[in-house]
User: Which sequence fits this backbone?
């Protein structure tokens, strides 16, 4: 089965002969941005049923219809790795969500910390960034972007058996880091100002916490997120 | 010796009792952005003499003067790793330079490829980004951002003995990648459209070329740069 170049994430189930209603945004993108009409082949995925080759059968101002021709690639789930991070400036937060999706995070959890600047996030906008990144990177899975929660509450409710890997700035020069724990796992990236002494104590007291070093320079939060996800994927994830 | 929080890169030699003329831009930043005056302590570095604690002795519209009080940290050179990359959209190119500096690249070489969009770069602006990133990340070294050159010319003049590590998209699912070569080395990141068949053939024919896999998803060029630098630093660089 050939793989179409235009990739769209949809919510509906995908299957042989299945008709799919595309959103107004997708119709606009196809007709006005890409200048495509009926007969155009697209790839559809929904995080569950793999990638399907589909053909546009109708297109208008309010939406479009497509019909599934056949499965082009099987569903590929990322390893069970979460990214827990403190949102920073808008562009860098968008960037973290985009990169976490490309790097195969299974779930993205924004948290408020004592030194976090952001009191709230636009969860829908961040989720849209994750969808766009998945469409772009050829994956068949879009990680959920969870609602913003205080770090303390996330730590209180931490699921038993899930390792929490903390990129600890104080380890900058601390010799060879230990091997990273396997899935289920989560990477925690603090805000630009680091964690408060109280938060550091709570982290140390949480069971399943591992710390990791990210080298001798102080990385920005967005760099740290990409670096930590990369190291985990290379050691314990799907690379390969 | 205490380390000051305000870090400034200067060109001049640093040494005990040395007077340093700061630029108009630094004077503006100190006086108008940070609202600091004479007596303020700053950290100065120049990529050669380590980090020096200095005190502002004069400040005006046209510049400022500082005097070196003592060395606060030794010079720390990054490993001999270059980043060779094809510039992409402006924000993502800026981002690559910032991240490469934070991640300890020793030199940054923008190259034109067949599928590169950019015909030119603002070398001075990219160099300024590298300086800002070094000031921010606590390093004492600013990598040089070289002038834009065609990839073919860079490959023709490739220095003997320097490994060229190519993040090859076609290796996405190709089993465990081999260990990365040690310094002197360079990482090569292609443009969004990948390398042309001719370029791929030239790369394969260049001596000292290694390829590396960056997992099963197709990474954007900026993500690939950060991921590749991270993997090399963790395997062969200064982490730790």
Assistant:
């Amino acid at each position: 089965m050939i793989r179409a170049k235009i990739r769209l994430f949809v919510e509906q189930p995908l299957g042989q002969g299945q008709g799919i209603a595309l959103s107004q945004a997708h119709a606009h993108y196809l007709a006005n941005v890409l200048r495509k009409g009926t007969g155009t082949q697209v790839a559809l995925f929904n995080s569950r049923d793999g990638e399907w080759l589909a053909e546009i059968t109708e297109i208008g101002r309010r939406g479009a219809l497509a019909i599934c021709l056949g499965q082009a690639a099987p569903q590929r789930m990322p390893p069970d790795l979460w990214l827990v991070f403190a949102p920073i400036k808008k562009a860098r937060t968008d960037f973290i969500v985009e990169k976490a999706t490309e790097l195969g995070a299974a779930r993205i959890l924004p948290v408020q910390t004592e030194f976090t600047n952001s009191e709230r996030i636009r969860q829908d906008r961040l989720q849209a960034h994750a969808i766009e990144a998945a469409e772009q990177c050829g994956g068949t899975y879009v990680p959920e972007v969870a609602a913003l929660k205080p770090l303390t509450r996330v730590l209180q409710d931490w699921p038993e058996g899930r390792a929490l890997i903390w990129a600890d700035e104080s380890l900058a020069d601390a010799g060879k880091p230990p091997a990273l724990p396997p899935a289920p796992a989560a990477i925690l990236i603090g805000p630009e100002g680091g964690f408060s002494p109280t938060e550091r104590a709570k982290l140390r007291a949480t069971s399943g916490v591992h710390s990791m070093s990210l080298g001798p320079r102080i990385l920005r939060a967005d760099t740290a997120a990409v670096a930590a996800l990369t190291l985990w994927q290379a050691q314990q994830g799907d690379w390969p």
Notes: Residues 7-73 of chain B form a domain with the Ribosomal Protein L25; Chain P fold (CATH 2.40.240.20). Chain B has two domains: 7-73, 81-236. Residues 11 and 30 of chain B are 18 Å apart (CA to CA).
